[in-house]
TrEMBL record:
It is found in: Plastid, Chloroplast. Belongs to the D-isomer specific 2-hydroxyacid dehydrogenase family. This is D-3-phosphoglycerate dehydrogenase. PANTHER family: D-3-PHOSPHOGLYCERATE DEHYDROGENASE, FORMATE DEHYDROGENASE 1. It comes from Gossypium schwendimanii (Cotton). Keywords: Amino-acid biosynthesis, Chloroplast, NAD, Oxidoreductase, Plastid, Serine biosynthesis, Transit peptide. GO terms for cellular component: chloroplast stroma. It holds the Pfam family PGDH_inter. InterPro entries: ACT-like_dom_sf, ACT_dom, ASB_dom_sf, D-isomer_2_OHA_DH_cat_dom, D-isomer_DH_CS, D-isomer_DH_CS1, D-isomer_DH_NAD-bd, NAD(P)-bd_dom_sf. GO terms for molecular function: NAD binding; phosphoglycerate dehydrogenase activity. SUPFAM superfamilies: ACT-like, Formate/glycerate dehydrogenase catalytic domain-like, NAD(P)-binding Rossmann-fold domains, Serine metabolism enzymes domain. Its EC number is 1.1.1.95. Pathway: Amino-acid biosynthesis; L-serine biosynthesis; L-serine from 3-phospho-D-glycerate: step 1/3.
Length: 592
């Protein structure tokens, strides 16, 4: 058993959400009015109303048609920042390409309505991810559909600079025939350094190997075995710079990669190197590249991207005779445009429906196949959090929470980030006005000071199921249902997934078994005949349907805990009658 993560959080419980009663108290039970349930977190849209999706840049027709089957679609292109901020408060989702800046001001102007930003492409440097996260807005991208198109464009520019295609074309069109001037270089046997060995970089490497090039790559996050599988050697940044005949850039623009190719880097490259960039303009210091071209250190460059797009007309780099330029065409094939449109439309619609997004940028990243396995456990962890926090007596501050995962799988085979986010959501939402989702769960948790630790229990047996059970404990608090206190003095609830549905299987030290649907009544009673019938009669008189019931007891004739699952919420009078049954020692009503 080992604790794998922790962070600090404090929640102030100022509102009593659940109804509880103990027969040991001399005073009569008081039943406060429950808070109204909040709007669903991922999709805050009025019941029956279609969401509105703003498409701010040109998107393929297939994607537009898919969006229209689910949402109202507003295609408004070339919006100024002011116009975008004005429109966004009326939109539930926003789709952009690389030309629209989605800034903090955009998220603030949305006033909480914007739930999803879809980036039709891979790079997300035009979206303020930090602001999106703080405002609970999911950011999704389309990382696969344009991979081949971008790789092909990289190869096209690679071959163009090796044979002076653009310059020779312009020369012939100017009425000249300068064969000796445009003698090129062969690619066979040359060393290509791929900077950034992700989806696009690896596809460029595959194609360059087919051209007879020797390919090396630099990427601090790439797996060496994956590179070796296609005949590529991973090397240091220094080795890539000093040995390459061609350098092809395929990394995202981050603080670490900004102006990665600068004066210092160019001073270490092999003289006569050729640079290809289909990634992001900001990864090259454009002034430094201009100096390297003028000095002959860099023989040629082929650029599809620029720090400022479109670049100013007087841009010296664009006009340089040894530079081949294209207007950000990496993803510009008919097939890629339609593929990206469909991919981002599917991601946005799925997110608006509340589905887990495999392409989420600012939420726990879990592969699609794992999402399918974890889906029922996501519901279980949220509901356990909701139950646990409602068991806390009003006035107690929730500071210390422990989540235990029991599994036959090894630690490396169980990614719990998604589950931790949902526990946090379940803990915070019922006792605050904050909407919590997968995107902002960690941020909200840290902001409120809660200390949440996770631990794993490795079980013997088959690892076929991701988890056997999950337990949520809250320490250093009082409980409005004393039986929820475990032997260690903490509020403890435990559950597992049965037949694909979340079940509550333990409260405190009492074993129970009830489906976590609708609402729940927990009763501690003396173990004697007739109690189940009495409670059932009270609920049936109120036309409240019981969907599940179980009783866990210490021993025959001793104390027992009855757990009742309800489809409808009983009235206060019905709950009062349950509390007045002689054998009932305490009970609590909990909303899921």
């Amino acid at each position: 058993m080992s604790v794998i993560s922790s962070w600090n959080l404090t929640i102030s419980l100022n509102t009593t959400l659940s109804l509880s009663w103990r027969s040991s108290l001399p005073s009569r039970a008081i039943f406060p009015r429950p808070k109204k349930p909040k709007t669903p977190v991922v999709l805050a849209i009025a019941l029956g109303a279609k969401p509105t999706v703003l498409v701010a840049e040109k998107l393929g027709d297939a994607g537009i048609q898919l969006l229209k089957t689910f949402a109202n679609v507003d295609c408004s292109y070339n919006l100024s920042p002011e116009e975008l901020c004005t429109k966004i408060s009326l939109c539930d989702a926003l789709i952009v390409r690389s030309g629209t800046k989605v800034t903090r001001e955009v998220f603030e102007s949305a006033m909480g309505r914007l739930k999803v930003v879809g980036r039709a492409g891979v790079g997300i440097d035009n979206v303020d991810i930090s602001a999106a996260t703080e405002h609970g807005c999911l950011v999704v991208n389309a990382p696969t559909a344009n991979t081949i198109a971008a790789a092909e464009h990289g190869i096209a520019l690679l071959t163009a600079v090796s044979r002076n295609v653009a310059q020779a074309d312009a020369s012939v069109k100017a009425g000249k025939w300068e064969r000796n001037k445009y003698v090129g270089v062969s690619l066979v046997g040359k060393i290509l350094a791929v900077m950034g060995f992700g989806k696009v970089g690896s596809e460029v490497a595959r194609r360059a190997k087919g051209l007879g090039m020797q390919v090396i790559a630099h990427d601090p996050y790439a797996a060496a075995d994956r590179a070796r599988a296609i005949g590529v050697e991973l090397v240091s940044f220094e080795e890539a710079l000093t040995t390459a005949d061609f350098i092809s850039l395929h990394m995202p623009l981050t603080p670490a990669t900004s102006k990665m190719l600068n004066d210092e880097a160019f001073s270490r490259v092999k003289k006569g190197v050729r640079i290809i960039n289909v990634a992001r303009g900001g990864v090259i210091d454009e002034e430094a590249l201009l100096r390297a071209l003028d000095s002959g250190i860099v023989a040629q460059a082929a650029l599809d991207v620029f720090t400022e797009e479109p670049p100013p007309q007087e841009n010296k780099l664009v006009r340089h005779e040894n530079v081949t330029v294209t207007p950000h065409l990496g993803a510009s094939t008919t097939e890629a445009q339609e593929g990206v449109a469909l991919e981002i439309a599917e991601a946005v619609v799925g997110a608006l429906k509340g589905e887990l997004a495999a392409t989420a940028v600012n939420a726990p990243m879990v592969p699609a196949e794992v999402l399918l396995q974890l889906s029922p456990y996501v519901a279980l962890t949220e509901k356990l959090g909701r139950l646990a926090v409602q068991l806390v007596a009003g006035g107690s501050g929730v500071k210390f929470v422990k989540v235990t995962y029991a599994s036959a799988r090894g630690p490396d085979d169980l990614d719990t980030r998604l589950l931790r986010a949902m526990v946090t959501k379940g803990l915070i939402e019922p006792i605050s006005s904050v909407f919590v989702n997968l995107v902002n769960a960690d941020f909200i948790g840290k902001q409120r000071g809660l200390r949440l630790t996770e631990e794993r229990i490795v079980l013997d047996g088959s690892p076929e199921k991701p988890l056997e059970f999950i337990q949520v404990r809250i320490a250093n608090v009082e409980s409005k249902f004393a039986s929820a206190i475990s032997n260690s003095g903490e509020i403890a609830v435990e559950g597992r997934v049965k037949d694909g549905k979340p079940h509550l299987t333990k409260v405190g030290s009492f074993g129970v078994d009830v489906s976590l649907e609708g609402s729940i009544v927990l009763c501690r009673q003396s173990d004697q005949p007739g109690i189940i019938g009495k409670v059932g009669n009270i609920l049936s008189e109120e036309n409240v349907n019981v969907n599940f019931m179980s009783v866990g007891r210490i021993a025959p004739g001793k104390q027992a805990v009855m757990t009742i699952g309800l489809d409808e919420e009983p009235s206060r009078d019905a709950l009062k009658k349950i509390g007045e049954i002689t054998a009932v020692e305490e009970f609590v009503f909990l909303k899921l």
